[in-house]
Amino acid sequence: MIAQNNARSTNNDPVESSESYPITGGSNGAGTSRLFRQFGSLFSSPAATTDPAGYVEFGSISDPAASSGRTLGTFAGVFCPVALSMFSALVFIRVGFIVGNAGLYVTLLQFIIAYVILLFTVSSVCAISTNGAVEGGGVYFMISRTLGPEFGGSIGTLFFLANVVGCGLAISGCAEGIIQNFGPSDGVGSGTIPDGRWWRFLYCSSLNTLMLIVVLIGAEMFAKTSMMILGVVVICLLSTYISFLTQGPMDVSIPHENNLVNFTTARYTGLQADTLWSNLHANYTKDYTSNGNQVNFAVVFGVLFSGVTGIMAGANMSGELKNPSKSIPAGTLSAVLFTFLCYMALSILIAATTTSTLLQNNFLFLGPINLWPTFVTIGILTATFSTGLSNLIGASRVMEALAKDRVFGPLMSFVIKGTYKNNPIAAVIASWVLVETILLIGSLNTIAQINSVLFMLSYLATNLACLGIEITGAPNFRPTYKYFSWHTAFIGLLGTAIMMFVINSIYALSSIILCLLLVIALHLFSPACQGAQWGSISQALMFHQVRKYLLMLDSRKDHVKFWRPQMLLLVSSPRSCCPLIHFVNDMKKGGSYVIGHVKVGEFTDNDSSNDPTIEEYTQWLSLVDHMKVKAFVELTLSKSVREGIQHLIRISGMGAMKPNTTILGFYDEEQSRDFFEYEDSPYKTNEFDGNGIKLFPYRKSGESKSLGVVEYVRIIDDVLRMRKNLCLCRHFHRLDKQMIARNNHIRYIDVWPVNIFEPKNEDPFDVVSQFMMQLACIIKMLPIWKKLELRVFLCESETVSENSAAFERPAEHRLDQRLKLLRISASIHKIPEWNKDIDFAKHRNILKQFTGNSDSNQMMAEENINRSKLYMQRINQIIRDRSNATAVTFMYLPTPPATSSVDYKEKCHHYLDLLTELTFDLPPTILVHGIDAVTSTTL
Q1: Helix (H, G, I), strand (E, B) or coil at 181
Q2: What is the C-alpha separation between 296 and 282, in angstroms, rounded?
Q3: How large is the average pLDDT for residues 539-566?
Q4: What are the residues whose beta carbons fall under 8 Å from the beta carbon of 599, sequence distance 6 or more?
Q5: Is the pLDDT of residue 599 over 50?
Q6: HEC readout, 456-508
């Protein structure tokens, strides 16, 4: 709780500060702890502990290896999962398809392109992974904590779908291998099981269900056995290499499902130069597994890339690694190099030993030509089953991460509720159902293209995240991986984007559109986007660009044609002035808007508490969110309200975006209303009430004002002397925008461009009056106010000589011409009783004594004061008679009395009394005084 002994309690005066109040968060020590908990969340890991509020304590993250659960090294924790994921269904099932159609040259080129993209993406993965601990969710966690919840949530959703499709791809490959070996074709156990489209779907569904059971029961054990599984796959792959080098020529059967050819066998030649020569160049044919669709470069690359999309597997294991910053780069890069060499060797051996006819018509030819055909069967089953299982686990974990972050709000709450012993049962079952729908596609090659595009989009986002954060120059982005730069991220991003469209432009465009739609939807509706404390790269990018453009925005180059209001609204307690806050937001017309507040008190060396404005700042930001206004907040601590306002006027804004217009509430005795509690108020909320404490207190009935009349008038004088336009707002507690929108009785916005204290026929053409009309015109541009009619009241006096130049042309005509030049659509209304009821000549000299235009230093007679009040009451009655259907009234604000005048304090009281009488019982009224020209009649 903030100490209040050094702060003077203030009340709900128009510009004064509210009294000190307790701030949630406790003492200095508690606030510091909270700050460190927030900071610690950036580096949270299994070594850290999480408190109920969601903040992460540091724990013992300085020694990750000693923490429970961190037991894996580089080989078991990174190399094995990455290598196993990158072999997948491709190594035994589709390399022959790729070489047979694309030829050896194009195949090697495609592998180089794919691995270049992967290499630069791995560089980005390593940069993010070594800049902080990566938790569950893999690429989703990386992107969401870097790009923010909108992009992170959308890319995470697509990454979840990519894992689902990848699981379907692996299962299809596994089923294809089973059919090849145990189905009607010649192979191990030939003819033991039937084949057909729906039989294959049944086998795929059975495999999917088996994976579901494994994930629900023994997913952790599978993760621990990945090293053994990789060993099995490598042994099977070595048997294939040995077979290529030792097996002689033979005939290999064509699968029975291949209806595109009329022959039953094709030739395997063994190592021969003629075979290699014939396989060097592309020879695209039709794909017998997808109803005879034509194969081309894009289809082949889509199938190839789908098999090497496992580079994130190591980063996903960071929570179990002894030393993530070293293991992830070393393990991932070594696995990428290992699989690249394996694929290149396999491609060359296939091209040198197998005819294109066999490659194009039997994608599973490796079994029949192997010295030990069973090894190929085992290799296919282990590689595809382990990859599918890994993808199903990954998909469920990403879904769990999305649910925990409340990216889709309560829509995914069933995932959190359906978790048992840290295993997201509901997420696993949901992923299993989606995999079933993917299996309905049937063709492995078609699924492979979808899988490639979705993974490429995830990699594109990863590169984009690293590129963006590197460009912004964020000082906390200090990855220990030294081979990353913005060049590597840019090349990875560009290559990924191009190859997405090369693979399938329709899939690529659809996934990007879906991603953008998700971004928009999450930005508008997601609870995570409203309260996430992850940090968003959009903030860093905006800061980078805004700083650059602010420096380019030179106030010396300002031109009246491009003038716009930049508002500083001084607020005592927002509880009592919600309509005014909203109205000023309408009146800013795309300009900057600052809500300022002065807290009265002293910042002394003896006070051990923090600056109270720091604690209160977040409350004001929450207020801005609640009010839904586009405003900045500036708070200051000062010995007096007047001094604090001077501070705010000087320091608010930045560069050429400093406020040019200051807005104050009017100094009156009207009872304040709490718009946060008022039953019919559109601003009603309990957000700022808690534990019996009301934030933003205001002056209650019977409480005295701490801001005096003289100090208030001095503040008015200060604002004008600091060369700021000034608005005093009264009766805005009566403003109801909802009623204006639905009630046809409210029809007008009124402008009274006459200085009541010193009326002249030229008033409609001076700076103050034009500023007043400019503000009224701005208000009328907004949708709710657009239906209202703008009225300008012409108040002519008889003080102008008939021989003067001003009288040669009627004031009404001159005002009409001026409005046309300024492109202001308004109707002009003359006041016929103005000259009949009011004698300006008798009152002008008296009224001038209360303003800064007076040259007299004489004492004011009591009789003159009373006559002036009666005069104001008569003018007020004229204005009230015409304001029954008025929404807002703009009036001329005269300058306050000169500080050097005799009896200054008394004149201040009379000045404010006359303004009070002038605006008595009017609609919401703005008293305006402009300093500089704000309108232009030229192009």
Answers
A1: helix
A2: 9
A3: 77
A4: 7, 17, 18, 20, 612, 613, 616, 635, 636, 637, 638, 644
A5: yes
A6: HHHHHHHHHHHHHHHHHCCCCCCCCCCCCCHHHHHHHHHHHHHHHHHHCHHHH
Report the C-alpha gap between 107 and 96 in whole angstroms: 10
Cα torsion 743, 747, 753, 759: sign = negative
Q: What tokens were used for 402?
A: 């999305």
> Quick one: 70 exposed, middle or buried, by C-beta within 10 A (0-12, 13-18, 19+)?
buried
Cβ count near 772 (within 10 Å): 27
pLDDT for 110 beyond 80: yes
Residue pLDDT, tens place only, 829-861: 888 766 665 665 566 666 767 776 655 555 566
Q: Sign of the CA dihedral 369, 373, 376, 377?
A: positive
Between vectors from CA 98 to CA 97 and to CA 101, what angle results, nearest 5°?
A: 80
Comparing 32 with 194, which gets the higher pLDDT? 194
Please give the helix or strand (H or E) that residue 693 lies within, else none.
Answer: strand 693-694
Distance in angstroms (rounded) separating the CA atoms of residues 817 and 323? 78
**Where on the phi/psi map is residue 59: left (φ > 0), alpha (ψ -120 to 50), or beta?**
left
Q: Is 789 helix (H, G, I), strand (E, B) or coil?
A: strand
Question: Residue 388 — φ and ψ, nearest 5°?
Answer: -60, -40
Q: Is the pLDDT of residue 703 over 90?
A: no
Note whether 764 and 811 are within 8 A (CB): yes
Helix (H) or strand (E) holding 534: none
Query: What's the token pair of residue 290?
Result: 């997808």
Contact 910, 865 (CB under 8 A): yes
Q: What are the tokens at 498?
A: 């191009």
Instruction: Name the DSSP class of 76.
Output: I
- Mean pLDDT in residue range 735-746: 84
Q: How many CA atoms lie within 13 A of 440 on its CB side?
A: 4
Model confidence pLDDT, tens digit, residues 202-256: 888 888 888 888 888 765 666 667 788 889 999 999 999 999 999 889 998 888 7
Q: Report phi then psi at 410, rounded to 5.
A: -70, -5
Lowest mean pLDDT across 28-32, 342-346, 413-417, 587-591:
28-32
The secondary structure of residue 354, as a DSSP letter, is: B
CA distance 423 to 223: 14
What DSSP designation does 896 have?
P
> Which sign does the torsion angle of CA 211, 213, 216, 221 carry?
negative
CB atoms under 10 Å from CB of 436, counted, come to 18
Query: CB of 820 within 8 A of CB of 773?
Result: no
What's the rounded Cα separation, in Å, for the pair 386 and 223?
A: 10
pLDDT of amino acid 60: 34
Q: Are 311 and 123 in contact (CB under 8 A)?
A: no
Give 620's contacts (C-beta < 8 A, 6+ positions apart): 595, 597, 633, 635
**Rounded to whole angstroms, how far apart are CA atoms 314 and 335?**
10
Could you tell me which of 381, 346, 456, 335 has the C-alpha nearest to residue 97? Answer: 346
Report pTM: 0.64
The residue among 129, 473, 447 whose CA lies nearest residue 311 is 129
Strands (E), 123-183: none
Of 366, 286, 303, 675, residue with least CA distance to 499: 303
Q: What are phi and psi of 595, to 5 degrees?
A: -100, 115
β-sheet bridge partners, residue 874: none
With tokens 């601003």, the residue in question is 683
Please state which of the ranges 410-419, 450-459, 873-882, 908-917 shows the lowest mean pLDDT: 410-419
Contact 170, 93 (CB under 8 A): no
